[in-house]
Structures are given as C-alpha cells and as structure tokens.
Amino acid sequence: MIQLSELILNPDGSVYHLNLKPEHIAHDIIFVGDQNRVEKITQFFDSIEFSTQKREFKTQTGIFKGKRITVMSTGIGPDNIDIVINELDALVNIDLETRQPIEKLTSLNIIRIGTSGSLQADIPVDSFVLSKFGLGLDNMLRSYLIDEVSNLEMEDAFVKHTNWDLRKGKPYVIACSEKLEKIIESDKMHKGITATAGGFYGPQGRVLRLNIQDEALNSKMDNFKFGDNQITNLEMETAAIYGLSALLGHNALSLNAIIANRASGTFSEDPYKAVDELIAYTLEKIALG
User: Fold this and answer.
1) I need a labelling partner for 175 at 20 to 30 A (CA). Which of 58, 147, 209, 230 fits?
2) Residues 285, 179: contact at Cβ < 8 Å?
C-alpha cells in the first residue's frame, strides 16, 4: 500500500497537484509549457468535456475528429515534469482507493508541443524539430534508477567532448518513443538531440551579472555529434519527459517550433504563426494515428 504521504490526494479524491481523477484524462495527451497555450490547441476541438486548473497546471479534455485528447500545461522545467508524469501515471496505473498498483498497466501517449531555440545555423527559425533523443543537463532524473533506459555510450561521449564538470551531475540521454516518431515524423521535421537544461540563464549559457561555470559550453554542444545525431536545440523539459515516460512504460515525443536561432542570433518575426502550424500538424497526425 502506497502511504498517504507518498501519494497525496485532495479531499475530492483527485491527485494533489493536477487536481485530476482518472476519468478526466485521455490516453493521448499533449503537453504545453504555458497555460495560455492550452486553449490555443483546444480551440480546434469539436467539443470539450472537462476543464480544470490548479497552479500552473491547466487541463482540458475533449474530442478532435473523433479522437479523445487531453491538453495539459506543465509549467517550466524538469521539476514540474517530475510532478506531472508521476501524477498522470498514478491516475492510470494506481488504484487511488486501495493505493495499490493496478496489475494491468496502461501506457499513455504523451506529445510535447513547445518552442525552443536552435543551436545549429542550418535549422532556421520557424522550422520544426523532432527530438530523437533528450540530453538531460538538469540532474533531476538521476534521483531514479535509469541505466536500463539511458544511452550510456552517448552520455560518456558527451561528457568527454565537453569536459563536463561532474560536480554538476552526470548528463543523461533517453530516446524518444519509436511508436510516436513513426506517427508524427515527416519531411517537415529536423531530427536530432534536444538538450534539456535545469534553468534559463546560467544553465543555458546566458550571462547577465553572474559568471558561469563553463562559458564555452554552448559552442561545445554546437559541434557535438554522435553517429548521425547532433544537438539541435536547447530547452527545459524534453529529457525529463523522455526519462520518466520510459521508466514508467509510457510513449513520449517532443516537438518544438524553432523561434530563435542562437547560432545566427535571429528571432522569428511571427513566433505565434510557427506554433499554430505545429499545433495543427500535430493534431491531424494524432487524429489519424
């Protein structure tokens, strides 16, 4: 039996942070970071059956072209992803009344739609990136036993290439869901490694008034290659989503509209248009899948 202190429920029986019960979510779930982006997606739905919000976690479930889909805002960062995926898994794989794991486990399909900055000059603003791998620089996933789901060879190659300071914790690498990749991929998508940082400023190489541990890290990441894969972009959620999903038996894929190019110093003239196009594309693929 899972103790009250370990799986916290609200007085109405919903999971603590998300404010959700099992019947509130679909098996196909879209993650966005910004709570205001939830309705940018659900505005295309034929109907909405459920809506709730607690803190930054806003959820709407409805029907798009016959497919039941949940859209949820996660907020920013790997720590929020730890909350969201563990509580979603509890909704489908733990009996909340008996507090016992359910014998027959359920796999969710989780697709993140986000915005990001490209690290490569040949991945221009307003293009799309499909994250073949998530490279975690954040250290959150190291709280779990991850060796069975991580790419140890790529991790070691990255540590060596960047002369990574292990006092920050060892980076981890997790692959996307092959199932979802086959459903979503197209010629529109650039593919590669998405680096996930634990912060927006220093962890992503931005310098305001504080010096950072490795001023050359971004340039080292720019020219890191492993096989046919290079680091395409840098954000704050993908590797954590991939890692927890793989550990818990869920399918996960991260898609980003590129609104900035760090290599060229450019920013999209109309970032909302790029995001809207990625949303429309993804919804159509989910409906057909």
Assistant:
1) 58
2) no
The whole-angstrom separation of Cα 95 and Cα 86 is 14
Per-residue model confidence (pLDDT) at position 116: 85
Q: How far is CA 54 from the centre of its chain?
A: 20
The model's pTM is: 0.95
Single-letter amino acid, residue 238: T
Q: What is the mean pLDDT of each run of 10 residues along the chain (289 residues)?
A: 97 98 98 95 98 98 98 97 98 97 97 90 91 96 97 98 97 98 90 95 94 95 95 94 98 94 87 91 94
Find residue 118's DSSP bridge partners: 233, 261
CATH topology of domain 28-288: Rossmann fold (3.40.50)
**Per residue, what are the HEC states of the chain?**
CCCCCCCCECCCCCECCCCCCHHHCCCEEEEECCHHHHHHHHCCCCEEEEEEEECCEEEEEEEECCEEEEEEECCCCHHHHHHHHHHHHHHHHEECCCCEECCCCCCCEEEEEEEEEECCCCCCCCCEEEEEEEEECCCHHHHCCCCCCECHHHHHHHHHHHCCCHHHCCCEEEECCHHHHHHHCCCCEEEEEEEECCCCCHHHCCCCCCCCCCCCHHHHHHCCEECCEEEEEEECCHHHHHHHHHHHCCEEEEEEEEEEECCCCEECCCHHHHHHHHHHHHHHHHHHC
Q: What is the pLDDT of residue 119?
A: 84
